[in-house]
Amino acid sequence: MNLLARQAESLFWLGRYIERASSLARIIMVQTAFDRGRANGSSWGWLLALYDESNDFHKRYDEASSENVIRYFLNDPEHAGSVLRSLEAARSNARALRAMIATDFWMHSNRAYRRVKELPDSALNEMRLAATSEAIQIDCYALLGISSSTLYRDAGWRFFQLGLEIERADQMSRLLDVRFAQSQIGEADGELIGDFAHWTMLLRACGGHHAYRRLVSGPLQPRNVARFLIFEKSFARSISHCLRSVDQSVGELRKICRVPTPDRLLVRISDLKALVKQARKDPELVAHLHGFNDTVQRHLAELTQELSSCYFEVEVAADVAEAATAPASEVPDWVENGQPADDRDDSQDTHRVTDVDPSQSQSQSQT
Amino acid sequence: MPQLSATRDPSKPALLSNYEHDPYYCELMGDGVERRPRLLEFWQRLEQLPFDDLSVRAADALHDLYERGVTFTVYSDRDAIDRTLPFDVIPRVLTPGEWQTIESGVKQRVAALNLFLGDIYGPQKILDDGVVPRDLIESNSNFRPEMKGVALPCGTYVHIAGIDLVRGSDGEFYVLEDNARTPSGVSYVVENRHLMQRAFPDLIEGFNVRDVSDYGQKLREKLIEAAPVNSDNPQLVLLSPGVFNSAYYEHIYLAREMGVALVEGRDLVVVDKRLFAKTITGLQRVDVVYRRVDDDYLDPRAFNPDSMLGVPGIMDCLKAGTVSIANAPGTGVADDKAVYAYMPKVIKYYLGEEPILANVKTHICREKEGLAYTLEHMEELVVKPVGESGGYGIVIGPKASKKELDDCRAAVKARPENFIAQPMVQLSVCPTLTEDGVAPRHVDLRPFAVTGKETWVLPGGLTRVALRKGSIIVNSSQGGGTKDTWVLYESPGQPQSQGQTQVQPSGGHSQSQSQSQSQSQSQTQSQSLSKSQSRSQDAAGSTNDDQARGNK
What we know:
Chain A folds into two domains: about 1-150, no CATH class; about 160-310 and about 350-355. In chain A, about 65% of the residues lie in helices and about 0% in strands. Chain A has 18 helices and no strands. In chain A, helix 1 packs antiparallel against helix 10, helix 6 (about 105-115) runs antiparallel to helix 7 (about 130-150) and helix 8 runs antiparallel to helix 15. Chain B has two domains: about 25-210 and about 335-360 and about 435-550, no CATH class; about 365-420, Dna Ligase, domain 1 (2-Layer Sandwich). Chain B is built from 17 helices and 23 strands. Chain B has helices at about 35-45, 50-70, 95-120, 125-130, 135-140, 185-200, 200-205, 215-225, 250-260, 295-300, 315-320, 335-350, 370-375, 400-415, 510-520, 530-535, 545-550, and strands spanning about 70-75, 80-85, 85-95, 160-165, 175-180, 235-240, 260-265, 270, 275-280, 280-285, 290, 325, 360, 365, 380-385, 395, 420, 430-435, 435-445, 450, 455, 460-465, 480-485. In chain B, helix 8 crosses helix 9. The interface of A and B includes residues 2, 6, 320 and 326 of A.
């Protein structure tokens, strides 16, 4: 049987939530380290601006003290965008998927969740925060590692990857917007891009410092750091790389998993790629960075919506049921004494199918 | 024999030196006079183990289960709390001869249940012949008129059965309850074995215990056998109420073992009397549904209209013959308490055989002799109202006051058809690890049988143990745990005659004999009835999915 729509959706969000928790933990970790070296440490208020959560925050907290903001983002059970809630959501999705994920994954998602849920207050103080957020980070890496080592490489794997890469691109675009967020709350001075220390922090926050240094020597150029984080195809967290992975996953859905990929979905992806391509030609990109980030985030949200309407919400109508046919026998060609599935030879993998409707794809796999 | 992982300190008393099981039948000692050679061997091995080591390893093993998520789930406000079912490390051992009796008895029982259901939803001969009273069936709340005249593949209604057995002080097995709806607990049978192999290799090694791990494949095979006649390459799914169900782990386990999709009601849809799953490529045909959703919640169009767990229209598919549902709707009428009393007659009616596994002697008050006996011996009997569930209205003779007995007598006289009466069964015991060492604790046994064209019985079963001293309540919410259940292979070179001296060979068990035996038992166990009454709360052994209700 094909992957259930609900399972595909759960896998997609599983990938997103792990990446989200990981990204938040990393931002907190780097900000902590970054804060320490400064004469008068900045407040953490910019994080609220970054995620556009000021209103929600002030419903429950009086002041944006570093202590409050850290709690809000790390383990506030009322805040849907906290690391805690992200891990909880990841675990809920994992629970729904338990019949198809490795036991090890379930075990570790429990551990990761419990670690954050049971954090003592002392783990959040300035002395311990770096270690705390690093441990969370490592937990998330472990989850990603178990996933890629164990997840069955069917369509479900591609949905997991799609969730992860879309979230990763979204988080990068937010990270690029930190300076803007800080200026919003009056913490960045007039020179929006000139802060050397800020861009070093950004690089470190996404683990790109070393990679950047391999490519570019000499004094750190803010505009080049930004372009690196957006365009460098070999850097796993760059927006370009994420979009390439998205493209690849969708291509594999079509070519390897025989899942139709409607034009409207492909159009969304090519629009996004065009947007980034266009930005690359813009010599003043850094000056327009906030607008660019906004557009990227909007496009990613639309792409998510499109995936949902293409795969997660299944249309039920009598004529659709007519098209639904018996699934082909799925005996792999390596099974001895099994009926070799002769429609599964390699030549078919290169067969390009664009926007096939379910009936066509079904009849194809039946031949 | 393998090396033991630790050896006993000779200065301390042996593990079993204070073990005293009288007056109950002990699962490991037999009658205590003539131990079976295989059990004796195990007994000796057990005696070599140091208690402290065993306790530590037992605690580790339980933690291991928790980490692996072999849990049932309890819900509070926001949180899902996963709990493990307590596991006792000392297994319950069944000899080949004992197993033969159980296996053939369970097969016989399941065959009779299926023939009975096919009859009462079909020609109703057994009712016409007056063997089972018509109103007992047709007025039963678990009787589903929707099933009348629906032909099922292989004539199988009860694809998965869990027949609850207890063993009396005479050493005989008795059927306490038939579970023909959605019996659960089989995942623990397999997980307990895996745990035993992981954590106590020195206990199990060399004993030639029959494997239980192919349950999933057998189940799949049997369910496919029972697919609609015309379906080619039948597609099987497991329908779960969802993650909030307390037995969700078992649904996961079974879906994985069978290699089928674990679906919820919202994943399925009926179009034009055909059932489909919603997949990423659109709708896909489904032919067989192993459902772990109760009848009431299966189809809001046919049954409870408020159910969100079921699939609207799935009953139409069943009637149209496009889908098989396991177990079929309406099987609850066959495992009903009142119908239970008629099972020996049902078996004889359809199969022309005496029951291999006896019922606990049941006096049916709607029958003249039963009524007379009940009224006469009420102070030593347990009187159960048949229509009620949850143990409501049960009167335990030996514990009841004179007024209660008088009231009960009046009630039974007024409406005899509403009552049955049973003697109290002395549940057998098994050595069990407690804080104070190894002590006897009461156990029951739920073997699992799966049926397509024919019936296969998993060699083993769920042994539930009442961990509290003196208690015979085996369910997890009240201090119950489980044990690994070993069915031994015939040992090559070992004479079997000794192993079979205690058990009736299959097929030859006389009902009247066991009845007289059970009647002569002493009546000290008032708890024996609350066991079945509290069973519905049991995560590992529930016939009703409580969470399924709470979650609708």
